[in-house]
Design a protein that fits this description.
three-stranded antiparallel sheet, 8 strands, DUF6776
């Protein structure tokens, strides 16, 4: 009986303490709230980092674009200055000529794209028309020889590049360099509709060097 009374007394005291003692905060809920806060802060931090990365990349792209535009504008200004002198009243008079010739590789080491700038201001206002063809002086390490337009175009009777302009024009096309040959010189041959042919030569190194050119 004494033991039962003691046990009942202990249970009563424990129940009273549970009922009237101050309740601690729910630790599990606190942990969940803190975990949610951490996740939110981490997401915000990741968003800010990504935004900063995008801003930096956009700024780098903008700077690159501006540099390209500055280079393009400088080239155009130089071209305009040249052509103003060329067609102006004080410009020197020149007959039909190849003012500039440049070639660029097209991935395949045998395939080259050429752009030729043709000029004339001797007959002011007159239209110059005709055709352009190229030839190459090449070496195989032992001797030099010349490859004509049909060989460079890999076609017998290949059509030449037509031109028609008053003061200047750019014309372009492709040529194929046979394997095992080293080009030394490029010959540009103009065949006007009236008058004698005009032939000019350019070293291969000069023709393939990077350079800016424009026509109109």
């Amino acid at each position: 009986m004494i033991a039962l009374v003691a046990a009942a007394l202990l249970l009563g005291l424990w129940g009273a303490w549970r009922s009237f003692a101050p309740q601690p905060a729910n630790a599990r809920e606190q942990l969940r709230a803190q975990a949610g806060r951490i996740a939110t802060l981490e997401q915000q931090n990741a968003t800010l980092a990504r935004s900063d990365q995008i801003s930096r990349q956009a700024n780098a792209d903008l700077q690159a674009t501006l540099a390209e535009r500055d280079e393009e504008i400088a080239g155009l200004r130089a071209d305009v200055a040249f052509y103003e002198r060329f067609v102006g009243a004080t410009g020197q008079r020149h007959g039909l000529a190849v003012h500039d010739l440049r070639l660029e590789p097209q991935g395949d080491p045998q395939l080259w794209h050429f752009v030729a700038t043709l000029t004339q201001n001797l007959n002011r206002g007159a239209v110059s028309s005709g055709h352009l063809q190229l030839a190459l002086e090449v070496t195989d390490g032992r001797s030099m020889r010349r490859l004509d337009w049909n060989v460079l175009r890999q076609q017998a009777g290949a059509a030449e590049v037509a031109y028609s302009f008053r003061y200047f024009q750019q014309v372009e096309g492709d040529i194929v360099l046979p394997r095992g040959l080293k080009p030394v010189r490029v010959i540009a041959r103009l065949l006007p509709a009236t008058g004698a042919p005009v032939e000019q030569s350019f070293t291969w190194s000069a023709a393939t060097a990077p350079a800016g050119a424009a026509g109109g």
